[in-house]
Amino acid sequence: MNKNDLAKEIASRMSVTVTQALCFIDTMNDVISNSILHEEPVMIQNFGCYMSWKQVERMGRNPKTGQECIIRKRFSVKFKPGKGLIDKINR
Fold first, then answer.
1. Are 36 and 77 in contact (CB under 8 A)?
2. Which of 1, 36, 43, 54 could staple 49 via S-S, CB 3.0–4.6 A?
3. Residue 74: is it exposed, middle or buried by C-beta count within 10 angstroms (0-12/13-18/19+)?
4. What is the pLDDT of residues 9-41, one digit of tens each?
5. CA distance 37 to 2
């Protein structure tokens, strides 16, 4: 499912326009992104938790050439699914 498919599904379930659903998706994305940027976890009950984490600098390998290279430290995002989501997908 891509963003447009998601917007169409939200629009049909909430009886709103696809444009309004796209606005909702963009707003939610912006709110979650800003929270993660400020290192604040975002917990959505029965769905999951988005949190930032620091990756340390480490050695890596170019898969095409096999040449070793340094992967610089950076921030990334982890998602931990909630119990409700896990239960739903395992029914």
1. yes
2. 43
3. exposed
4. 999 999 999 999 999 999 999 999 999 999 999
5. 24
Q: Of the candidates 48, 60, 56, which has an alpha carbon nearest to the alpha carbon of residue 75?
A: 56
Q: 42-44 and 58-61: which strand pairing?
A: unpaired
Considering the entire predicted model, what is its pTM? 0.77
Tens digit of pLDDT for each residue in 37-74? 999 999 999 999 999 999 999 999 999 999 999 999 99
Stated as kind and residue range, the H or E segment containing 10 is helix 3-14
Is residue 21 within 8 Å of 14, Cβ to Cβ?
Answer: yes
